TrEMBL record:
This is Amidohydrolase family protein. It comes from Polaromonas aquatica. Residues 1-27 are annotated as: Disordered. It comes from the Bacteria. Residues 1-12 have a biased composition (Basic and acidic residues). Pfam families: Amidohydro_2. Gene3D superfamilies: Metal-dependent hydrolases. Residues 13-27 have a biased composition (Low complexity). Residues 138-287 form the Amidohydrolase-related domain. SUPFAM superfamilies: Metallo-dependent hydrolases. InterPro entries: Amidohydro-rel, Metal_Hydrolase. The lineage of its organism: Bacteria, Pseudomonadati, Pseudomonadota, Betaproteobacteria, Burkholderiales.
């Protein structure tokens, strides 16, 4: 899903945010994809999106953009550092819109990822990339292609997380390439596979984590957790994280409401579990500490 009509992808994730004065007692935060480049923000320049993060207690974001210049620009900005927002940079597989549908059959994508990883990000938050993605597969069979296999093995070798927008079948196929890779399942299955299937995959792959934006069936009446999801989150308190998935500018307009919605159901959970999902799980795997 997620691409932007503009030159930049603008897919922004928010990573881990932090505990804050959530009305319900839950922590704030979320993790996920995000941020593009300075030029892609259109009506939402960096000063605007950083202000939205700040007022929602978001202290860290997973950022990825098409092309990767946007992520590098955001990480380098002094403004980002001043806002107290930690950028966790991910390597996007797409240089342009065409790559979105073709990356899995294009060997040059693998070359590009290696070069980008070798380069890292500079400036205010200089350092290595922490992950690959978000990438998309709409035909899970493509998870068996050579590019997907090499990328999974590259991620495993370099301890990069992989953020994948795929179905449950592709989770099995991707993990078969690199059983020790840290795979983050974007939306924990945007097609809405049954909770029992998610449970089975989490049991099978201890390294698998779930990001919860756009997850069908997660919340029920009043924005509260549906009962089977509450049970699942309590069964795997260390495996989930929240995300904003600001893949188009409209999501920035909705950002306050998104975070408020997360606080509603986080507030239903025991505080230690809420803090883990809101901040600790993502912060832990990316080595982010609160500022
Ligand atoms: Zn997605």
């Amino acid at each position: 899903m997620h691409y932007n009509r503009e030159a930049w992808d603008c897919e922004r994730s928010a990573g881990p945010p932090q505990a804050s004065s959530a009305p319900s007692g839950g922590s704030a935060l979320h993790a996920v994809k995000s941020v593009g480049a300075v030029s892609c923000f259109g009506p939402n320049p960096p000063s605007d999106v950083l202000a939205r993060m700040q007022r929602n207690g978001v202290k860290a974001v997973v950022a990825n953009s098409r092309p990767n210049d946007g992520t590098r620009a955001l990480a380098a900005l002094e403004l980002t550092r001043q806002a107290g927002v930690t950028v966790v940079p991910f390597i996007r597989l797409y240089r342009n819109r065409a790559d979105y549908d073709n990356w899995f059959r294009d060997e040059t994508i693998y070359d590009m990822v290696q070069a980008e990883f070798a380069r890292g990000v500079t400036g205010s938050q200089a350092g290595p990339y922490k992950g690959i993605g978000e990438f998309h597969l709409y035909d899970s069979a493509n998870a068996n292609g050579p590019v997907a296999r090499k990328l999974m093995q590259f991620a495993q070798k370099n301890k990069l997380a992989v953020l994948a927008h795929v179905d449950d079948t592709a989770i099995d196929l991707l993990m078969a390439h690199a059983p020790d890779a840290r795979l983050i399942w974007a939306h924990t299955g945007i097609g809405g596979p049954p909770v029992s299937r998610v449970d089975a995959l989490f049991a099978k792959y201890p390294q698998l984590m779930g990001e919860l934006s756009y997850r069908p069936g997660l919340t029920c009446e009043g924005g509260k957790l549906c009962s089977e999801w509450r049970t699942l989150l309590l069964k795997y308190p260390q495996r989930f994280m929240i995300g904003s998935d600001t893949w188009v500018n409209q999501r920035w307009v909705q950002y306050d409401e998104l975070m408020k919605g997360y606080r509603v159901w986080l507030g239903e959970l025991p505080p230690d579990v809420a803090r883990r999902i809101a901040w600790g799980n993502a912060a832990g795997i990316f080595g982010v500490t609160e500022q």
